[in-house]
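Here comes just one.
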Amino acid sequence: MPRALIVHGGAGDIDAERRPRCLAGCQRAAQAGWAVLARGGAALDAVEAAVAVLEDDPEFNAGHGAALNRNGEIEVDAAVMDGALRVGAVGAAPWLRHPVHVARRLLEEGRHALLVGAGALAFAAEHGLHPETPATLVTERARQRLAQELARQAAPAEVPTGDTVGACAVDDRGHVAAATSTGGLAAKRPGRVGDTPLVGAGTYADDRAGAASATGHGESILRVLMTRVAVERLAIGDPPEVAARHAVAELEGRVQGRGGIILVDLQGRVGQARNTPAMSYCAIVDGHLTAGD
């Protein structure tokens, strides 16, 4: 079976000077995920490894460098899902560097699909994963972004995007998986949960068709179940690029949303699309790397 992995670093308005750093970060994440697939590892392990690299990278809105809510705090969302329709997700979890690991533990436990807030933190602590502090997670760019977003809210011009990160993979046994992680919208209300941890909205995987991870304005993405729409297009035979474009068209046409999506199918083909100025991504298919922004 063909092996493939694709990652994204978030769709949105990415400053030109940041684009090379975002692209390099996506390449590092893709290489970490591919290392798992190359040694015969599972798609679920590959996407977790890739997203953990993105959560560590301060260029992205996940973990270290995550967007701040209106109180200047970090609350993160994440999900992992495999093609057997197993899922683990956390929402509005304060001060976690690697919510993707917490989501994976929840998937493996199998009792609950989604935990939020204090409940997510308590579960994380049971598995040796503890919150960090502003000193280790907050970046100057996140502080500036909060100030800019608070000013924008005083005179709104357009709906902002949340530049989430994610990964999708298919392994050599034909199993697929997806993982997505985000700090959400800058200056969001405390307790807000976006599309990322919601099955079929920000994250979806199905061994009958493929896997998808979305990025952008979460409230819009969850209204159209963007990743479920994309994977259903794979199921009826659309190539990933066509399915990705269809999902973005659905997002824009139905709810005037802005965002992007990545996909992988059972044949090891990948696809991506966006309606934002930029979305860094990197794909590795049978050892061959492609990237763009």
About this structure: The chain is about 35% helix and 25% strand. The CA atoms of residues 159 and 217 lie 8 Å apart. The mean pLDDT is 95. The radius of gyration is 17 Å.
